[in-house]
């Protein structure tokens, strides 16, 4: 588990304990639920003109020992620790997955915040990930209702994401795929926002460093130098967390 100089991680430990006691009713859901398009759920929609590209450095850590060493070394730079719950959805005909797209609701710190996102066209090479990403805030209570009844997502008539899901991917009904949890420690280190992840799947736990960057090759070398100086083993991530979740197998 994460270690830090601030009080946040101890509270997150309690959240993770609650996570592990909680059972998702939708983990094995296979039947989409449909709703009238005349009613809509509460939704906040920021204006956007083009799909932004998320570029991230992704370095995989081999085990909890390496994760703890990174946590210890970065503790003076700790900003916050986030407890994330990630729930994914697909069309009833797998329209999104077939087209390398992922529709996700992410809940923060036991429903203090919720974000809807659509990621598409992922490419990851030599530890650098590039993917189209759209994000929109959702009221957490509405998000939970959508986990219970996935068809409610299609009622977000003012959402650019849902408009794209319906029109570009021709999705008529949605199913919940389940998901995984993530404990993310965030650090401000040498002008970079480093994110140290402990990702909890129901088939195991993985560890990773992520860093969003406009100059990924330069920043990757900086992070690699830090890890090598500390004697911490790492490798380049070659799949994203959603791909790991779908394969139900931790990376080798």
TrEMBL record:
Transmembrane segments: none annotated. Pfam families: CYTH. Gene3D superfamilies: Hypothetical Protein Pfu-838710-001. It comes from the Eukaryota. Residues 52-249 form the CYTH domain. PANTHER family: CYTH DOMAIN-CONTAINING PROTEIN, OS08G0299200 PROTEIN. This is Triphosphate tunnel metalloenzyme 3-like isoform X3. The gene is LOC115738066.
């Amino acid at each position: 588990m994460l270690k830090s100089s601030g009080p946040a991680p101890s509270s997150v430990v309690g959240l993770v304990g609650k996570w592990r006691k909680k059972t998702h009713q939708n983990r094995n859901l296979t039947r989409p639920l449909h709703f009238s398009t005349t009613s809509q759920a509460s939704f906040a929609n920021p204006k956007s003109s083009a799909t932004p590209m998320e570029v991230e450095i992704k370095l995989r850590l081999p085990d909890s020992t390496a994760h703890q060493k990174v946590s210890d070394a970065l503790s003076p730079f700790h900003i916050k620790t986030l407890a994330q719950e990630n729930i994914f959805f697909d069309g009833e005909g797998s329209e999104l997955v077939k087209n390398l797209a992922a529709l996700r609701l992410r809940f923060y710190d036991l429903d203090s915040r919720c974000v809807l996102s659509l990621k598409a066209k992922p490419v990851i090479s030599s530890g650098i990930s590039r993917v189209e990403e759209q994000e929109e805030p959702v009221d957490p209570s509405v998000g939970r209702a959508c986990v219970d009844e996935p068809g409610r997502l299609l009622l977000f008539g003012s959402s650019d994401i849902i408009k794209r899901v319906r029109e570009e991917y021709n999705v008529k009904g949605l199913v919940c795929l389940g998901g995984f949890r993530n404990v993310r420690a965030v650090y401000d280190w040498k002008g970079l926002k480093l994110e140290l992840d402990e990702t909890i799947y129901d088939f195991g736990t993985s560890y990773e460093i992520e860093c969003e960057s406009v100059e990924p090759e330069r920043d990757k070398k900086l992070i690699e130098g830090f890890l090598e100086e500390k004697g911490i083993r790492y490798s380049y991530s070659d799949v994203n967390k959603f791909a790991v979740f779908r394969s139900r197998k931790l990376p080798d």
